[in-house]
Amino acid sequence: MAEDKGHYPHTSVWLRPPRESRTERRSGGRGSQAPAGLSRDRIVRAAVRLLDADGLAAFSMRRLAADLGVTPMSVYWYVDNKDDLLELALDEVLADMALPEVPDGPPDPDPDRADHDWPQQLRALAREWRRVLVAHPWATRLHGTYLNLGPRSARFSRTAIAVIARSGLPPEQYAGALSLVFQFIYGFATTEGHWRERARLTGATEDELYEIAYDTAVRTDAGLVLHAELVQPRRTEGVGAVRERDFEHALDCAVLGIHAMVTAARLTAEAGGRAGAAGPARTAPR
Questions:
Q1: DSSP assigned state of 280
Q2: How far apart are CA 17 and CA 106, in angstroms?
Q3: Looking at residue 237, what is its pLDDT?
Q4: Is 285 exposed, middle or buried (0-12, 13-18, 19+ CB in 10 A)?
Q5: Looking at residue 24, what is its pLDDT?
Q6: How far apart are CA 194 and CA 180, in angstroms?
Q7: What keywords appear on the UniProt entry (predicted)?
Q8: Cα separation of 89 and 85, whole Å?
Q9: What is the pLDDT of residues 99-139, one digit of tens each?
Q10: Are 20 and 78 in contact, with CB atoms under 8 Å apart?
Q11: How far is it, in rounded angstroms, from Cα 113 to Cα 20?
């Protein structure tokens, strides 16, 4: 058997044992001790707090160590590098997600007996995903950068697959249906988070910032007036209220579109069954 030299793939922090366990194994349990009062969980939670407060651009291992009241080398006892810590933080933000309860076991293969609660469950998942991304806007910039194979991400993925499996869709369409919903959520939440951050940095409310953008657009191009009037309710109802209405309408479009596909698949299957029951077509006698 080849000697373990402590080399691990660097594609994801989740594909390697925690750093402290590797350090202990290499030293045979002897040698330097872990810094008192620290743990990987505490470091990750502190990283999330700093990322929420200051953003991704301002985050550094030195700043994190200062916040924890330790030296940077103490942090590196538990994480190899900043990338590993960011990937751990990306999973940590999913900790408080309220996921719907989905029955254990495989779904009924008969579309007529599909779980009729799945649209509400899918909507609940979508709303929670949006909440997390808006609460932690830095996370939208990290998705796709890291594999995020952590336990909380896996739990979310398992729940999403279990929900869509109970819709009655054929398995080969699960991924496409989930991509429709969650890529929409990602885009919507990313834009929402950027807009809120822009308002915060300018010292204006969201409605004040919209007024500035509206007036500037009208002055820049008079042709925009017609299009701007189409979103006039934003000026009278408020950006937040209209955004919530837009989100729910768009989510309905996605969920109802999946429901329509389920219905179409069932009707196609029923039509095929009737055609099969009628037997082969007969040719007219000559």
A1: S
A2: 32
A3: 83
A4: exposed
A5: 52
A6: 22
A7: DNA-binding, Transcription, Transcription regulation
A8: 6
A9: 998 876 666 555 554 567 899 999 999 999 999 999 999 99
A10: yes
A11: 50
